[in-house]
Specification:
This protein is 20% helix and 29% strand. The chain is of the alpha/beta class. Bound molecules: zinc ion (ZN) (3 copies).
């Protein structure tokens, strides 16, 4: 089954341009069509007549407007950091018509954060009639845990994110591992025979909770997908400069980039 993956956002938590920064990449990112303009990280998967999101960051509304996204059928969350969850409230108008609620898939730690931030959405009494109609499905954290959705299967790929272990996802021939400083050994067997591998590559210098360029390139060589794309990118990496340095099968993602692949 054919699927289209769209990078809704390819930037790090602060976005690019980074507010207050005057570096050359941020300066360029003020141009509306610059590939250096990076909103907060999220992807959209369209297949079988359905739209599935991985994460909803602060920029979700603007991303949905840009992509003319008019319906969402499910959201899978990677973890509870602001740049991955704060757009949840913007699902409201896309959820009103769903009697069962729009399904959100999150592990216990992430679900607890969602319920804390959006307490008014999840409370059972005194609900606002216009709160998001969403239902959290708490997912186990074991490697390879499967979430079947609309004819495809999303497999949990645990990744190290600083001191935490959070969710990456594999779906068919593609995998999305945002916010990752390392890939635990137990996850590597789940990443075989990939057409598309998407990895965190924050900047050139090492960082305690995000993989950096050199490390992500080494991981691509180790895992050996057909193609790899880097995301969660800071203002440290100029799009055209870095793409000229990378081997042809590895590219920096950019906002709005679309990829076709087999999801099932
Ligand atoms: Zn992040
Ligand atoms: Zn900058
Ligand atoms: Zn994070």
């Amino acid at each position: 089954m054919q699927a289209t993956l769209t990078f809704l956002g390819s930037g790090t938590s602060m976005g690019v341009p980074t507010l207050g920064c005057t570096c050359a990449v941020c300066h360029d990112a003020y141009q509306p069509n610059s590939p250096n303009r990076r909103t907060r990280p999220s992807i959209l998967l369209a297949y079988n007549g359905h739209n599935v999101l991985i994460d909803t960051g602060q920029d979700f509304h603007a991303q949905a407007v840009r992509e003319r996204l008019t319906s969402v059928d499910a959201v899978l969350y990677t973890h509870g950091h602001a740049d991955h969850v704060l757009g949840m409230d913007d699902l409201r108008p896309l959820s009103f018509h769903l009697p069962e609620g729009l399904p959100l898939f999150a592990d216990d730690a992430t679900a607890t954060i969602l319920e804390r931030i959006f307490e008014y959405t999840f409370r059972k009494v005194d609900r606002y009639p216009t709160s998001a109609r969403v239902t959290i499905h708490r997912t186990p954290t074991e490697a390879g845990t499967e979430i079947p959705l609309f004819g495809a299967t999303f497999e949990r790929i645990p990744v190290t994110h600083g001191r935490n272990t959070i969710a990456g996802y594999r779906f068919g021939n593609a995998a999305y591992l945002t916010d990752m400083s390392d890939i635990p050994a137990e996850s590597l067997p789940l990443l075989q025979d990939l057409d598309i591998l998407i990895l965190d590559a924050l900047r050139r210098e090492p960082h305690p909770s995000h993989s950096h360029l050199e490390k992500s390139i080494a991981l691509v060589h180790q895992i050996a997908p057909k193609r790899a794309f880097f995301t969660h990118i800071s203002h440290d990496l100029d799009h055209n400069t870095i793409n000229a340095e990378l081997p042809p099968h590895i590219r920096l993602a950019h906002d709005g980039l679309k990829l076709e692949f087999d999801i099932a």
